[in-house]
């Protein structure tokens, strides 16, 4: 399978998501041990062994090498999991016998996945480096099980400074009591969770308490949904993350103009026109690390949302939602516009109180009185375009203005 065929397979699995290449670029830029740690328990292996094997092989072909962690009682399923062409079975005793030291030779049952096996290595980073030399995925078999597994995973994430832990479960996420899958959960969230998933959610919070890295995330998903969780903004399971810090600034001139320009222009994939920053902005809601922003202007009818820009990768972290919620708390009356072909317009339609479609634009508003709507639409109709023209990129921007 050549490189182009591998990329096409990735797009097929992620349903042709445009986000995939951005995530792939990000993951390749990370040090390998920081990419991801994937934990699969015995139940997951029994239910979804083939899907997990397929996805891991595709990751390896994409030159990504996540660390896979298996519990010791899961080794008995390795014969199913790795489906070697030979009848050789992998046993826990064999793992022990072949791992008197940290490093093992490839297990007899592992020919179908380019993997290198290790039994609870005392120097995990060295084990990862050894695997990478052979272009193989490191598989760690831990001696602990039950609740102790989560402590082991937390310490491993801390040691390797891994940015994401992926927990594979049969349910494929955390659900509400009404069995609706929750897309994003803050580690500090008090949202009600189904009884079946409550212990898992508590375990995720305990892991974070040990890791204590504000950029650390835990994804709970299924083996078949692994690539979609990693390579799409929407994901496939539940993402646990530290709530984004959203700040309000009433003086934009004190902020880093270079970072703001980069954020906006990358999000819109178009350049700002000269003179944009000469406008009289009343304030900005800004994610503390410049992952997203919403810029506002005062008008006679309420607040005009001039720009709403979120970094592509950060959209999958809920940055846009956090900024939007902060905006609704601060501004009871707000309006904005977006181009009709812009895919984000579907989301705006759900969020707004009202809208009007007119030629290339759709005008949206929240909290306006009926008498104010004609004047607001006139204002939006005549408001100058402040981004350079780029027809090929307009449909990809987060908000056209």
UniProtKB/TrEMBL annotation:
A GO molecular-function annotation: L-amino-acid N-acetyltransferase activity
Q: In which pathway does it act?
A: Amino-acid biosynthesis; L-arginine biosynthesis; N(2)-acetyl-L-ornithine from L-glutamate: step 2/4
Which PROSITE patterns does this chain map to? GNAT_NAGS
Q: Which residues form the N-acetyltransferase domain?
A: 244-389
Its GO CC terms are: cytoplasm
Tell me the InterPro entries matching this sequence: AceGlu_kinase-like_sf (IPR036393), Acyl_CoA_acyltransferase (IPR016181), ArgB_GNAT (IPR011242), Vertebrate-like_GNAT_dom (IPR006855)
Any Gene Ontology biological process: L-arginine biosynthetic process
Q: What is this protein called?
A: Acetylglutamate kinase
Species of provenance? Leptospira perolatii
